[in-house]
Amino acid sequence: MFQIRIHGRGGQGVVTAAELLSVAAFLEKKYAQAFPSFGSERMGAPVTAFCRISDKEIRLREPILEPNALIIQDKTLLGSSDVFNGIVDNGYVFINSPSKVENNLKNINLMCIDATGIALEHIGKPIPNAVLLGSFAALTGIIKIDSVIEAIKAKFSGVMGEKNIDAAVAAYEKTKIGGVV
Amino acid sequence: MLYQLEGSQAIARAIALCRPKVICAYPITPQTHIVEAAGELVRSGELSDCEYINVESEMAALSVAIGSEAAGVRSYTATSSQGLLYMMEAVYNTPGLELPVVMTLGNRAVGSPINIWNDHSDAMSARDAGWIMLFAETNQEAADLHIQAFKIGEQAKCPIMVCVDGFILTHAYDQVDIPSQQDVDEFLPPYNPHISLDVNNPMAIGTMVSPEYFMEVRYLAHRKQMDIVEIIQCTGESFKKKFGRDSGGLLHKYNVDDAETVVVAMGSMIGTIKDVVDELNDEGKKFGVLSLTCFRPFPAAALADSLKNAKKVIVIEKAFAPGIGGVLSREIELAMLGGNSEIISIVAGLGGRIITKPMLKECFLKKNNEKTTFLGLKEDTIAREYKPIKSCNYGGA
Question: Within chain B, what is the greatest distance between any pair of CA atoms?
Fold first, then answer.
């Protein structure tokens, strides 16, 4: 089972990112479970969402305490120390940041990517969720970028869907060629 | 067909397949997504010949459902927590009127202190109202139970509440098989109401009953509940025959028959409990899990029979009554009166407190359990905050 925890702020599409991941995995005939940790449904408040992906039926309903991957959509959350809690050895950490983020993490595949910048360029809005999913697909290989594209298409129709797909693909390609910080 | 869906969406689609003619609800977290999705299905025309009625309160929501059901049409509503308490007068009236309203309860704690997260306190507040109450373990079962609910309720002439853990299920995206309209139509016949108020043929329901007969009316309500046990069992079986899934029925057993310790619980925590029990059994222990689907009517005989070989029964319950303790565990004790099993109660997950595998494992393995414990209780906070009330020192003469 592969477990992903997503941290961000209300309005950044944190819950949607977990949903899209689960739909992408579902399209690949895997079992997936996505759920939010609600409480503060307000713009700007910290929000956490979770996604489990497995080849077998998922019965577990506890929050993800030992993630294989972390997606941090807002680097101002790094000040609160619990963001990295439980990350497994050789796990993946994706941080939305235009520059390298100093940290004490060991045995981690860290990827900093200017997801807000890419989102502004392709979508025209500072919503980094789709961008980070493109990067996630490129680096982990847990889901295919085509599945991410299909999941975005199913969620957002029309121009908004196309723009998000462009942003995810741009991040995917940048990550593939190692063209991120 | 298989979909990756939010639990609320799955429930709304299952409801739509049952062709209700009236849906009325007032939004409350965490039920809101269900009624929003249902409203969308009505507006888009996917659910046709159905009136979606916006109301001003939960009291109005159930009152409208009572009215439309009394006029002879299949009716649905949903609520959570304080919403259920606010409609409580109507909740008690519905079974007395024998109206098979179907209601989803997106389980949430009840204030005060205010808390929007999951536990079963809201459901327990309605346990004596005379509704059928079913608890869903997964989102698949939540969808399936709603389809069965109309069939059970209409056959039993009794309202039915499908309890679905708030957030944990209502807001979780899972793989759910949504049956075809044709299959649901074959399973669930068109509503043939036993009451249908008609201005041209006036009749009254819910009239006053005097002391000479009130007791008999209530006794008959009890007898009826006992008969409904079989209807729920049969409907679960016919659902399995039609759709191939073991959703519904009275209870589900997992490694129960040769277990020394059986863990009993209701709702979404069953999955996590099964994972823990698998690990313990791999280590050579003998644990089983009993998931109670049907809480009302209480299937005492089926429960006692399933648990008769267990040396120990651990009841994990997401609600309790201050001053006495767990609700479910007391009822299980009563059902097993005279047996030899040790029964302990673990109150867990109140107000959305997380329930993890390590927490469960530790308490399953603990020897000499106290009668009632609270899972993950912060002892340091209790030590600081507990101020004993010295008896008989209030003053006065």
Answer: 75
What's the whole-model pTM score?
0.96
Q: How confident is the model at residue A102 (pLDDT cuts 50, 70, 90)?
A: confident
Identify all chain B residues contacting A61, using CB atoms and an 8 Å cutoff. Answer: 168, 172, 268-269, 271-272, 355
Tokens representing B395? Answer: 């003053």
- Residue pair B8/B33 in contact by the 8 Å Cβ criterion: yes
pLDDT for residue A181 is more than 60 = no
Q: Is the dihedral of CA A39, A41, A42, A46 positive or negative?
A: positive
Q: Does B117 touch chain A (CB under 8 A)?
A: yes
Which chain B residues are Cβ-neighbours of A19 within 8 angstroms? 6, 173
Interface-testing mutation among B1, B3, B114, B175, with chain A (most A C-beta atoms within 10 A): B175
pLDDT in tens, B39-48: 999 999 999 9
Written as one string, the DSSP assignment of B238-274 is HHHHHHS----SSEEEES-TT-SEEEEE-STHHHHHH
State the helix-helix crossing angle for B32-43 and B7-17, rounded to 10 degrees.
50
Handedness of CA B63, B66, B68, B71 (dihedral sign): negative
| Pair (B239, B368) in one structural domain | no
Please tell me the total count of domains within chain B: 2
Is it the case that residue A73 has pLDDT exceeding 80?
Answer: yes
Statement: residue A179 has pLDDT above 70: no
Q: Do A62 and B356 touch (CB under 8 A)?
A: yes
ipTM summary value: 0.94
Q: Is B156 part of any domain?
A: yes
Q: Tell me, what CATH number does B226's domain have? A: 3.40.50.970
B358 min Cα distance to partner chain A (Å): 10
Question: Looking at beta carbons, which residues of chain A come within 8 Å of B172?
Answer: 33-35, 61
Over its C-alpha atoms, chain B yields an Rg (Å, rounded) of 22
Amino acid sitting at position B244: G
Query: How does pLDDT run across B186-227, given as a tens digit for each residue?
Result: 999 999 999 899 999 999 999 999 999 999 999 999 999 999
The CATH number linked to B307 is 3.40.50.920
pLDDT confidence of residue B84: 98
Give the model confidence (pLDDT) of B304-338 as tens digits: 999 999 999 999 999 999 999 999 999 999 999 98
* Cα B320 off chain centre by: 15
CB contact under 8 A, B354 and A35: no
List domains and CATH numbers for chain A: 2-176 (3.40.920.10)
Asked if A28 is an interface residue toward chain B (Cβ–Cβ < 8 A), one would say no
Closest CB to A26: pick one of B4, B6, B270.
B4
B135 touches chain A (CB under 8 A): no
- Burial pattern B132-153, b for ≥16 Cβ within 10 A else e, equals bbbbbbbbbbbbbbbbbbbbbb
